[in-house]
Amino acid sequence: MCACALFTRVTHGAEAYNSLGNSDAIEKGGTANSPPPRGGEVSSEMAAELHEAIFVAKQERHKNLFLNYRNLNHFPVELLKDEGLQFLERLYMKRNSLTTLPDNLAQKLPNLIELYLHSNNLVIIPEAIGNLARLQSLDLSNNALQFLCPEIGRLRSLRHLRLSNNHLRCLPPEIGDLQDLETLEVSMNQLMSLPDRLHRCASLQNLTADHNLLGHVPRQLCWLHRLNQLSMAANRLTFLPLDLGRSRELQFVFVDNNVDLKGLPSYLYNKVIGCSGCGVSAHGLAGDPGEAPGEALSRALVGLPAEVKVVGSEADSVVPLEEIAMRALHRIYHQRPTDLSLLPPITLPKSLLDLLQFPLGHCHRCSQTMFTIIYPKLFPLRDTALAGVHRRTTVSFVAYCCSSRCLRTFDLQG
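Above: the chain sequence. Below: its structure as tokens.
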């Protein structure tokens, strides 16, 4: 049985804004910062303090520089004069009023490892940001970003990227080039989808995308074998990938308050899940114990991927020919350790070729790959041992099997 989801959500909520807490904790060991004066203008006293702080940092070759709460409207020119601060590794500039960054930032601060810019008024990030070759942590949360330049994908050392509470409508595909990325936080934006190439972030461990407009989760995310925590609460999800939770590394999944989400893949049964407020929309509300099993299953399958052409049942003993052919081709490719793009061309539609690389899912009973057909089996959460933990929800676990035989023999707790 999984741990109490309520406790985990409290822990998760604290971690969701660790970009603020981490820098505050570090700041206590550095130079104290005073809140800005009223009126939005930098006073002469604050200007003198700023000049002195930068002068001392240059003279003493400081690796950390704290310029928080300075009421800055522009990036300090003192940081960019002459050779800049070649030795600076961590720059903290939270809670100012910056609207942009200089194009020569990487030239003047080439050894930056951490850059904290949350709680400013940044509208755009210059393409030159991609020149910060050593950057490992970038915090741009609580700004006014509407667009993220593709050059963000050139930050090959980046491990933590925080973009929460902006106005982003999409993320550049180039984020998938960040092979060392471990943390991606994009909550409280206006995202309608996530990049399909996100699965290339092979080191990703924590993905937080709460409070967006996401309608689906790319099934490619199931190939993130180091992903430990996935949070997509308060979106517009109606369906989750069949393989979500198949990875042993994925232990925490939060999809609370997706009101039209009715089904959870049975792989999530032994995970720590948050699903409070799911399946409670006016047009999706079920939960009546007397509801016919067929109606409940239909509700849980709302939003099925377009690749699903057949929904099988226990009475269907014959697997369609197209499915058999796809499984045979997949076995051939699986035996050859190479990229599909290097194999001889096959006269199949691109959509089916993509399926060969990223199957629809794996049978929850025997792990057989599935491409165009599923055999679903419903397990209402209220009938499981987790009913006491998850009260405000009407979701069900759904097992997706590859045949009527697996469907008949699948056991959620076995």
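Helices lie at 5-15, 18-27, 44-59, 105-108, 293-300, 321-334, 350-357, 404-409.
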